[in-house]
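Sample pair:
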Amino acid sequence: NEGLTSEKMNKDLEESFTIVARIKLSSNKTNTIVGYSGAWADRNFQFKTNVANELQLHITDGGSTQVVSHSTPLTLDEWTFVAVSYDFGVNNILLQVNADEDNFAITTPLQISNKVMAIGGLVGGSDTFNGTIDELYIYREYLNSTQIGEFLIDPPYMLGDENVYYTFNENGGHLTNIIDYGALGVDGTSF
């Protein structure tokens, strides 16, 4: 299994952002793809699937919660392209499953800074991803549905200075090398 359990890295997303990945779910549970968390009073989010295998962005803001869910459930044991893109300027969230997109307006601007990013789980080890995450891109900008759609045709491997692209290479057992091909060079190892 090449999926991560909970590799933590710092990556501020101060305004607009986009997260793109290919995933393969192994079970019907809450599976965190990427989570950002800090103090409870701060704004945090969890890009995940729920027990019904729906793609979600779960936003917490000091105790109040907003959840947006994609209308198409994912199929177990099948590679699926997923994306979330947040446009800070208009408080819009785009969720995409393969070529199917849903757009949502949210009530509170989402600003994430001074948080810890966790891939494949939340900080503290909860809601771990049961399956495989691969080709994870994180952009510090909003990508529209046309730009995200280009990932389905030909993934753009050349990234700017503020973006990361992770591949997950199995290194025997449950240990996985994480290689950032973006300019930041934030490499690591899962556990």
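The chain is about 5% helix and 45% strand.
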